[in-house]
Amino acid sequence: MPRDAYVELEQYFEHLSLKSGDILHSPGAEIRDLYFPLNALISITVTMRDGRTAETGVVGCREVVGINAFMGGRETTQTEYIVQAAGQAIRVPARPLLQLFDRHKGVRDLLLMATQAMIAQVTQNAACNGLHDIEHRFARWLLEVHDRVGSDELRTTQEFISEMLGVRRAGITEVAQRYVNRGIIRTTHGRTTIVDRAALEAAACECYSVLIGEFKRLLETGELPP
């Protein structure tokens, strides 16, 4: 973020400790705050009428939760934001950020690029869920989580992973065991440890590398567009 905008916004920063399972936003509620995870991980989920839930996106240290708050004065969404991995985050009220968005081109450019990156993630995930098998999707999901939490040990259950990927738990258990047998991951109750990152990347579908490339193109250029 441009330095002058950061200094102006800093007075509104609220440092939080997020616990696994915390719900940051419920469907239909007005988005009043944005969350910038430092080492926490948040899942963006959609729940159907029959109770089934699927993940549409994941937010970590390189994204922001509630980015559509600056698209208008009283924005809502049909999704739920739930903390997947506990950690630290910074909460910022939507209104001062919206005011900066309206009058500061650098902030506007940055948030629009972040929005484009999120749209790319949601779009690619939709295609991945429809076209790729569980084994490749499981590897891609682990890599995305690993990138955002900065630890080889991921504290998440296979039941939760199956919910996020929209598949049966038995399928995740079977795939995870194959990866364990190949020495790629190690699993204990409620934890998955990545042992061989390179092998996991080789096992993932193309969607992972596509999203990495898009993120770098949009947000790792080191400069804002003129």
Structural class: alpha+beta
Helix fraction bin:
40-55%
Return the string of H and E elements: HEEEEEEEHHHEHHEEHH
Low-confidence stretches: 222-226
Note the quaternary state here: single chain
Using the alpha-carbon principal axes, give the shape: globular
What portion of residues belong to β-strands?
15-25%
**What's the tally of helices?**
8
Question: How do the strands of the widest beta sheet line up side by side?
Answer: 2-6-4-5
Distance between the termini: 14 Å
Q: State the total count of DSSP E strands.
A: 10
Averaged pLDDT, please?
Answer: 87
Biggest sheet layout:
4 strands, antiparallel
| Computed CA radius of gyration, to the nearest angstrom | 18 Å
Architecture overview:
- The chain has helices at residues 3-10, 94-103, 105-131, 134-149, 158-165, 169-181, 197-203, 206-219, and strands at 14-18, 23-25, 33-37, 41-47, 53-59, 80-85, 87-93, 153-154, 185-188, 191-194.
- The chain is α+β, with helices and mostly antiparallel strands and 226 residues long.
- It has a four-stranded antiparallel β-sheet.
- The radius of gyration is 18 Å and the shape is globular.
Topology:
Blueprint: H1 3-10, E1 14-18, E2 23-25, E3 33-37, E4 41-47, E5 53-59, E6 80-85, E7 87-93, H2 94-103, H3 105-131, H4 134-149, E8 153-154, H5 158-165, H6 169-181, E9 185-188, E10 191-194, H7 197-203, H8 206-219
Helix pairs in contact: 2-3, 3-8, 4-7, 5-6
Keywords, separated by commas or semicolons:
226 residues; four-stranded antiparallel β-sheet; 8 helices; alpha+beta; 10 strands; three-stranded antiparallel β-sheet
